[in-house]
Amino acid sequence: MNKIEIAEEKLHIYSGILLNYQEFEKGNHETISYDFTCPEFHELKEKYQLTAIAEKGSDFQKAKRLLHYFAPRLHHNSWYDNHIECNALKLLEYSLNNKEHGINCLNKSKILEECCLALQIYARRVSILPYSPYDYDNHVVVEIFDRQLNKWIMLDPTTDGYFIDENKLPLSLLEIRDRFANDEFVTFVTSTNRLDHLDNLRKKHMDINQYICKNLFYFMIDQECKFGEPEHRLIFCPTSYSVKKNKIANLKYRIRYLPEENKKMENKFKQSLSEMINSQEPSKTNIENMAKAPI
Question: How confident is the model at residue 152 (pLDDT cuts 50, 70, 90)?
Fold first, then answer.
């Protein structure tokens, strides 16, 4: 089997998991808030000339230009330890155009979220997580709400791309998840891809397709989308899935198989494990609250 065939085989496995977990928990009715009035947004907008980068057009067009400007200028480091204050001003000062200061997807997404909010575009940072606890990896992306299309659209500042259907319509996370689960056409595209030959693009990006599919089992979203770190996150999770049980197993797995060069993370993982063992099962939020329009 070649690389594409191996990736497609994995995709079928992950899609099958999603198919069997299409029903989400009927949880609480907590809502997500979006704050465009943070005073730091003026400094962010002026310092990095966000209006000039975004130019004119729909919310999606502006956000896509921001995505393509910042994504290649932020070096990736999966083992970044989150020591810089998590807001766009501090993170850009630390990492923009600096290969020695790589950051992870969590912080890249915070940058894009806040840049969009600074331009009055509804944006939220979303952690996308896998089914298996024996997985060292998850991912974080951004969703923006396009008022012209009246829908959410996922943007990934780590890969400089998004997902489309066979009609080239940009998709939300829930739409992507549903299409993978039901074996319908969906593919990742970069912000600069020509959308002429979609089947070829799907094959070209099969690695990313299967990677994102793997991480679409459940979601965590910042409840307060604003400048700086939120106080709360909402969990949107399929029924009959214990987040606590799986997080405990995942932390034990991380500690056991932690690479030698990253042993400095061990105490942090052990503290998180102790806190998780002594906590209650996290409450879940109704999936309709993730899908609904913010306005």
Answer: very high
